[in-house]
Amino acid sequence: MNKIKSGIYGLNSLLDGGLNENSATVVIGCSGAGKTTLATQFIRRGLEMGQEGIFVSLDENKEQIIKEAIQMGWKKIVDYIDEEKLVFIDASGHEFSAFIKRELPSFVADWKGANARISIDPLTPVMWSTSDRYEQRELIGFMLKETRKVGTVLATLEEHGTSGDLSGNETVIPMYLADCVIHLKSIHTPEGGLQRRLKIMKCRSSRHSKMEHQYSIVKGLGLVVNPENSSLTPSREVPDRFKQILHEKKGSVPARVIARLTEVLEDLRDDDFSEINLETLMREIIAEYEND
Ligand SMILES: Nc1ncnc2c1ncn2[C@@H]1O[C@H](COP(=O)(O)OP(=O)(O)OP(=O)(O)O)[C@@H](O)[C@H]1O
Ligand SMILES: [Mg+2]
């Protein structure tokens, strides 16, 4: 998987280097969590690297987003728009749903292979454009499948329930269909303060941190994530130790299994074993093949 830099300081190391190219990420958060800011940072980073940007806005109008981006310190946004490197699609939920159904394939044909970055902010009104769950799933699934052909997609999703509850229909469907899911949590402390935490719920075809990480929204920088306490490390002490254990037990396991596991271990790191007891694993491997 080719990794691309997200544009959010502190996030790439939690995703083992960045977002997977041509993947679809869903960012879930309540009002004020920083979804639009993050979607803008993601596009900005792509433009800096010569990629094109497509910003699909279903909530705020183009002028409002530009104004907020400038306030966040991104004055150059107007140049990218003038140069037509950054394209805005200003739509409501119903209009965008009709666009997905009728015009998306020809739009994709025009842009195919463009390696753009596409932000959809927020996806929620698209979900609301129909109450039929099957249709919602078809619509979002089709949209993600098609837009991934144009580049790397980041869609935001509003969190309406009590903070942390992502079981509602309108969050669950996009979460299943996305390749990567990031939850922006806002926690109100008893003292009346607000703590912001980011958690990667899933990331297909990538290692990722399983922890919650504090983040801030800073003028000029946007979202800044504190990657400390990430379970991801480059160290390989545990797989090396397991290789040793395998070697010691090689009389109890078929040679072909030893060969395959030795090869697999080359790609693993300490964080892959964070919840695994090596002795128990070895015992289970021996039991699995004892009658082969
Ligand atoms: N210029 C700024 N300086 C400092 N902080 C800012 C600035 N602009 C926005 N913020 C912070 O970012 C938050 C809003 O971020 P953003 O608009 O990205 O949230 P959102 O998740 O898109 O919200 P909504 O769901 O309401 O659209 C504000 O509540 C504020 O804390
Ligand atoms: Mg917003």
Tell me what the structure shows:
The protein has 292 residues and is of the alpha/beta class. It has eleven helices and eleven strands. The chain has two domains: 3-225, P-loop containing nucleotide triphosphate hydrolases (Rossmann fold); 237-289. It has helices at 35-48, 62-71, 77-82, 93-102, 104-111, 124-128, 133-147, 169-177, 237-248, 255-265, 278-289, and strands spanning 3-4, 19-20, 24-29, 53-57, 86-90, 116-121, 151-158, 180-188, 194-203, 212-218, 222-225. Strands 5-4-6-7-3-8-9-10-11 form a nine-stranded mixed beta sheet, sandwiched between helices. A two-stranded antiparallel sheet has the order 1-2. Strand 10 (212-218) and strand 11 (222-225) form a beta hairpin. The longest helix has 15 residues, at 133-147. The two termini are 35 Å apart. The mean pLDDT is 94. The structure holds adenosine-5'-triphosphate (ATP) and magnesium ion. Residues 29, 31-37, 71-72, 158, 217, 219 line the site of adenosine-5'-triphosphate (ATP).
Provide a quick synopsis of the model.
With 292 residues, the protein is an alpha/beta fold. The protein is built from eleven helices and eleven strands. It has helices spanning 35-48, 62-71, 77-82, 93-102, 104-111, 124-128, 133-147, 169-177, 237-248, 255-265, 278-289, and strands at 3-4, 19-20, 24-29, 53-57, 86-90, 116-121, 151-158, 180-188, 194-203, 212-218, 222-225.
How many strands appear in the DSSP assignment?
A: 11
Main beta sheet strand tally, sense and closure? 9 strands, mixed
The portion of residues assigned to helices is 25-40%
User: What count of structural domains?
Assistant: 2
> What's the overall average pLDDT, rounded?
94
The CATH homologous superfamily of the largest domain is termed P-loop containing nucleotide triphosphate hydrolases
Small-molecule binders here are: adenosine-5'-triphosphate, magnesium ion
Radius of gyration equals: 22 Å
* CATH fold title of the largest domain: Rossmann fold
- The largest beta-sheet arranges its strands as 5-4-6-7-3-8-9-10-11
Shape: globular
Query: What is the structural class?
Result: alpha/beta
Do you know the CATH architecture of the largest domain? 3-Layer(aba) Sandwich
Helix-strand pattern: EEEHEHHEHHEHHEHEEEEHHH
End-to-end separation in angstroms reads 35 Å
